[in-house]
Amino acid sequence: MEPIDSSPATSNITVRRGEPLVVVKDINKHYGELHVLKNINAVVNRGEVVVVIGPSGSGKSTLCRAINRLETIDGGVITIDGVKLPEEGKALAHLRADVGMVFQAFNLFAHKTVLENVTLGPIKVRGLKKADAEKKAMALLDRVGVANQAQKMPAQLSGGQQQRVAIARALAMDPKVILLDEPTSALDPEMINEVLEVMVDLANDGMTMIVVTHEMGFARRAADRVIFMAEGEIVEETSPEEFFTNPQTTRAQDFLSKIL
Ligand code: ADP
Ligand code: MG
User: Fold this and answer.
1) Is Membrane there in the keyword field (predicted)?
2) Looking at ligand 1, which atom is closest to the CA of residue 229?
3) What's the gap in Å between 28 CA and the centre of ligand 2?
4) What separation in angstroms does the CA of 14 have from each of 10, 45, 72, 175, 176?
5) Closest Cα partner for 243 from 211, 200, 207, 214?
6) CA-to-CA distance for 24 and 136, rounded, in angstroms?
7) CA-CA to 92 of 20 to 30 Å: which in 8, 56, 66, 258?
8) ipTM rounded to 2 decimals
9) What pTM was computed for the model?
10) Whose CA is nearest to atom 25 of ligand 1?
11) Using a 6 Å CB cutoff, which residues line ligand 1?
């Protein structure tokens, strides 16, 4: 894999860097009696990398899923680039395509080749011709270092390779923002870095990212901001440096003492 390029981003994504892209306003979510998201307010600006961190069960995945409308919310508003998340239908499919999602468990289509995994969305949702979708997919697979695996089935790839395909699949839709929910948690240790390198590369390129991860190295290298969640609330929101060296709340201090 290429060494990390730390040069400033040149992509046109950065032109409008700084405007609010994802706005989460007063959202709440219950599962029966359980109040999983409690009045969450957050803004992710264009080109920003936000790391969400917090104990298991604190609502991190639910928040990600809500932003992609994989989960309904009980109150509040989520807008993506100024557009309120639609309830359903074609509008939702399009808006969802603007919000790339990468899950802990890869979630590739098991019965499609690697290449088909990456071309399917662009053909179906973005209306690309097959040849164009394939050309684009190959470029993305090359970018994440798995172009030579294009004709294989997902199960023939290592976990790290599958996760890189999942990232290429998300990028193929030209998303405005990409959400990665513990993308390295299910990987064997020796594969974590190859996925983190791809993520750092995306961050350097100006991609807007929301990343749920406990990988402090990634947070320090790539994050503009850390959001610490506990029990359905945002408890701290600060720079990675400040969060890891000088956490303000006992909940953050307790959490960090367990993971560091
Ligand atoms: P995290 O990602 O921070 O570990 P989650 O968002 O997955 O947390 O979960 C938050 C809480 O909501 C947990 O207590 C979890 O058990 C509960 N939960 C998550 N999904 C469901 C569901 N589909 N039905 C009921 N409870 C759920
Ligand atoms: Mg989770």
Assistant:
1) yes
2) 3
3) 17
4) 7, 11, 31, 14, 12
5) 214
6) 32
7) 56
8) 0.98
9) 0.91
10) 31
11) 31, 34, 36, 54, 56-62
